Each structure stands twice: as structure tokens, then as C-alpha cells.
Amino acid sequence: MPADVARILQEIESVSGCSRFGRVTAVLGLLVEVGGIEKELSVGGRCIVESRDGRQVPCEVVGFRQGRALLMPFGSIDGVGLGCRALVSDSQPMVFPTEAWLGRVINALGEPVDGKGPLPKGTHGVPIRNNPPPAHSRARVGEKLDLGIRAINAFLTCCRGQRMGIFAGSGVGKSSVMSMLARFSGAEVAVIGLIGERGRELQEFITEDLGEEGLARSVVVCATSDEAPLMRRQAAYMTLAVAEAFRDAGCNVLCMMDSVTRFAMAQREIGLSAGEPPTTKGYPPTVFAELPRLLERAGPGLSGSGSITGLFTVLVEGDDHNEPIADAVRGILDGHIVLERQIGERGRYPAINILRSVSRTMPGCNSPMENELVNHARRLMSSYDNMAEMIRLGAYRKGTDPQVDEAIHFQPALEAFLKQGKREATDLDNSYAQLAAIFGIEQWPPQE
Asked: Where are the alpha helices (DSSP H) in 77-188?
């Protein structure tokens, strides 16, 4: 090769790559309007806005209006003004988890926030906004999964790859139930997403509720309530992406998210800022489009891979279990666990209302004897619940209805069975054995 040609090629290689950028044309509320690069961008694309004080603010494209791109920031837009540069980012957000991530706490961008140093990078990357596996290629729901809570194990049996919702108002014990599931479940890995949590509660949950035992096999993804709506929304996507990475590695993952409602609220802020029309309770249409896209990512993987068992909490506003988000989530998931404030006020925790809760894999996953035992207990609980007011008032006379008499007799023992301490674990076999012992069955399963 001639020397002149080699020198020219060397100079070309030394030239830094060109960058495409536009300029900020307007800032309104949470939105940053950018012109000059609208044809280079698409919805979901990324930009870096340079503020006047030199900060780089990552942003996402949420829409277009009058030939301008509408960006929403992942952080504070203090210092961003007219004329600031907005650089196009071509990178597709990916996450690369490994087993070394267990015991760590990360933010919505996959960065460590626990002060334990940088995170190692795995070889297998997963897009943060991934698509669910094709429905026709997914494996079926697997065998029963021990969750360590006897009320759930016995009455609301969950299978590997099932998706359940935990519906409750504020302060009814959702975090305590999640911590018990993380410590006691039979899953190999737990991925916990804390979406829109109060800042002061994060350390309490990690150190007291989760503890060293639960944290050792968990990855915690957090976005506190003071963070930008994009960060809160992305924390939910990050939670599922980390779970998918472990699932693809062959693990059976327990994915828990608290809460789907705050994810929906973050999407509501994004949609309304972008100019979407509000519908029921102010939620725009994209909220109800994003919910199934998020929740369908949990479940069984492809044949030969692991599974993601999803447990998603839903914060019901004003204890209204028929509000729009609760209604939408209930229709997507494979069952729901209802925590009731009145039960908690009686001092029985976890405050699960068995009669209002359902697992859609039951009774197919149980043996005939297990179904008979559970159905008998449910009938007695239902009979007592129907007559509870008359019993408390003393208006019911013993002997009027034999089934109600039986329900009254067994009610204290059933209530004690449903009550469980935060540090107490009961596996699947013992859950059925303890329930059978209430009805005088000494050996479980009974001998043929």
C-alpha cells in the first residue's frame, strides 16, 4: 500500500465519530421539546440533554408534536434551557446480570446503590424493555411451588410459572408477606422490585423484613417515590429483565413487585404529560396497554429454560378492589390474594381473606384428597362468615344448622392455622398436615 494512502487512512481512523444533536426548543413541566433531530428518533429512543451547568441528563422519547420530539428525563432537568444540546443515543438499553448480583441492590438503570462496589457484567444481555416469549412456544405451568406461608400453600397453592396478584390497601401487610416469600419460598432466585417506595422504608425492608437470609438469594431493584416517573416505570422493566436473565440461565425465579399500581401511576404521569387523553380516574390508554406487556413477561419460559413465578402487589385506593388498575390486573393474572384491613385489625397476620382469594391452578395441581380437605375447610369458613354477625350478636341458637355448628366449633383452630409469624415457615406438606390435624386426621396423607 502506498505511503500516502496509508497515511490518509490513518488520519481518517483518528477522526472522532460524528455526533447527531438537536437543540432544546421548549421546556414545559416534565417535557423537554427538541428540534432538529426529530427524523433521527422514534418513540422509546434515547437522548442525552446537556444542561447549562455541564450535567448530562438521559431522556426518553415519549412522542412527537408539530415536528418536534418530546423527551422526558430520567432525572432532574434543573439547568436545562432553550438552546441546550440534545445528543442522539444509539445504544439499546441492556442489562447483563450474573450470580454475583445476588445480595445486591440496584436502581432502575442497573447501577449499584448499596455501596458494595461495581457490579460484574455477565455474558448474556437482556433488553430492559423485552417482549414476552411467544405464547405457542412457552412451556406449561410447572409443579407446585412451596411459598412458606401455610395459608397460601394450602388454600391458594401456587405453581412454578404462575402469576398472582396481592391486593391490599396501604398498611395491611404487603411488605411483610413479600419478605416472608423471599425468605421461605422454594424458588432458587428472588428478584424484588420496589417501585415508588418511601425512601425511609427501603433500608427497613432490606435489613429487617428481608434480612441477610432473604437478601443472600435476591436481587433488589428500587426506585423511590421522589424519582422521576421514567425511573419508576423503568424500575419495573428492570425487575422483569433481571428475572428473565436468571430464567434463561435455567433458574426457577420468584419475581415480586411492589407495586403495579405505582408503575401505573408513573405511566399515567408520562402519558398525561405527552398529551394523552385521560380516561377512568385519569389513567390514559397507554396504562392499560403497558400492563399486559409488563405482566406477560413473567410466567413459564421456553421449553428447556427456567420459569418466572410472579407475585405482584396492587395498592387498592381507598380499599376499593374494583378500581381500574385492580380490575385490569385481576383479569391478566392467574389468581389473586386479597389482604383485608378488617382481618389485620383483629390481629391476624398475614391478613389474607381466603374466601375472596383464588388460585386458578387449583384444583388441577392438587390430589383428590387435598382438594377434599381444602374444600371442606372452605365450606366451614364460608358458613361461619355468612352467620358471623348473628353469632356475634348471640342471635344464633346452637342446633339450628349442623354445618354452622361445625363451623363454630372449628373456627378458632382455623383462625390459628391462618395466623403465622414473620419468622415462621411452613412447607407444603406440613401445611396440609396441620390443616388435616384440625379435623382429627392424625396422618397425612392418609394410608390407603
From this structure: 150-155, 174-184
